[in-house]
């Protein structure tokens, strides 16, 4: 397959869809499920294509790791640099060993699945190595698949249901305010192209963080009535892990840091991150994450200089303190 394609420019301008300078994320296009007739459940048949920095990718790796699916669903990481030609393989990421194309760019794999594909080229991607097809590129659905369809192959926490039927409506409700105000909220601050768009996103973000701080003063986990971690906690965690080290400066989310302004959120973040003896720490690469954000978003950070701070000694792994 040729490397040339209409997908040339990494430009979040493409997602600023209105005169108000607001960032609007586009919807994912591949929405099939493993467990269907076309995509039967099988070990080491499906692979994930992920970027270290991406919080939507990180959710999928958190669930994969918590469920002990590392060998069942192998991962291929793209390079940290998102340039004019989109995500690419190699350099500080992995080579493409799954598509049979030895692809240089992720777009080749999208076009392999659908030669007429015209949408955005995003990670995460759940890929069928046997049929050489993308199954799904929507993280919220990929984590549900791992909790449901892949659970029979789980080697850890098989009895942990991250979306239990009795909590579903509560989980849905939490996702509905966490996603636009926090997960995507930091991007709306960072990618805003007008002062007012930035200010609206900023106020919504910190108002929501204030509410979250309050909720976590009396609840161990974010979903009311949950006695264990649920998908809502794992969807929130990637944004919290990146907050003080990236979003505070790079996306101008700088009213308060988690470490100094939100003790309940900060300690909750550590508690969830340290679940299961700290196994989730293998899913997070701080250096690669910083390199991606500060190095790729040249409209925000013109020279691509990656800051050396803040000092994160003990930031993630010291004991958490929660009076619950
Ligand atoms: N709805 C998607 C969003 C994924 C997404 O936006 N990924 C970003 C990385 S954080 C991406 O690949 N962007 C590529 C681009 O902007 O060109 C999901 O949650 O899976």
UniProtKB/TrEMBL annotation:
GO terms for molecular function: glutathione transferase activity. InterPro entries: Glutathione-S-Trfase_C-like (IPR010987), Glutathione-S-Trfase_C_sf (IPR036282), Glutathione_S-Trfase (IPR040079), Glutathione_S-Trfase_N (IPR004045), GST_Omega-like_C (IPR047047), GST_Omega/GSH (IPR016639), Thioredoxin-like_sf (IPR036249). It comes from the Eukaryota. The record marks 247, 293 as: Lowers pKa of active site Cys. Gene3D superfamilies: 1.20.1050.10, Glutaredoxin. One of its GO terms (cellular component) is cytoplasm. Glutathione binds at residues 87, 120-123, 138-139. This is Predicted protein. It comes from Naegleria gruberi.
């Amino acid at each position: 397959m040729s490397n040339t394609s209409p997908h040339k420019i990494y430009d979040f301008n493409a997602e600023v869809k209105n005169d108000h300078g607001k960032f609007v994320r586009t919807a994912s296009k591949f929405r099939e499920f493993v467990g269907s007739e076309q995509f039967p459940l099988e070990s080491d048949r499906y692979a994930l294509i992920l970027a270290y920095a991406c919080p939507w990718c990180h959710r999928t790796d958190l669930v994969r790791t918590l469920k002990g699916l590392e060998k069942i669903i192998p991962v291929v990481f793209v390079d940290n640099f998102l340039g004019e030609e989109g995500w690419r393989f190699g350099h500080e990421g992995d080579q493409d060993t799954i598509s049979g194309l030895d692809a240089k760019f992720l777009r080749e794999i999208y076009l392999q699945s659908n030669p007429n594909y015209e949408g955005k080229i995003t990670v995460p991607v759940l890929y069928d190595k046997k049929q050489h097809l993308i199954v799904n590129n929507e993280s919220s659905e990929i984590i549900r698949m791992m909790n449901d369809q892949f659970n029979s192959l789980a080697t850890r926490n098989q009895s942990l249901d991250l979306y239990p039927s009795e909590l579903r409506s509560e989980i849905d409700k939490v996702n509905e305010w966490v996603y636009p105000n926090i997960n995507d909220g930091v991007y709306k601050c960072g990618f805003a192209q007008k002062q007012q768009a930035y200010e609206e996103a900023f106020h919504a973000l910190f108002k929501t963080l204030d509410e979250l701080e309050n909720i976590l003063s009396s609840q161990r986990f974010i979903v009311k009535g949950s006695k264990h971690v649920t998908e809502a906690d794992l969807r929130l965690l990637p944004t919290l892990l990146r907050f003080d080290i990236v979003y505070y400066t790079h996306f101008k989310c700088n009213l308060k840091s988690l470490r100094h302004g939100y003790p309940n959120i900060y300690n909750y973040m550590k508690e969830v991150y340290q679940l299961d003896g700290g196994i989730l720490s293998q899913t997070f690469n701080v250096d690669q994450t910083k390199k991606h954000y500060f190095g790729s978003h040249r409209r925000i950070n013109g020279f691509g200089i990656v800051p050396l701070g803040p000092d994160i000694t003990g930031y993630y792994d010291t004991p958490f303190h929660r009076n619950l």
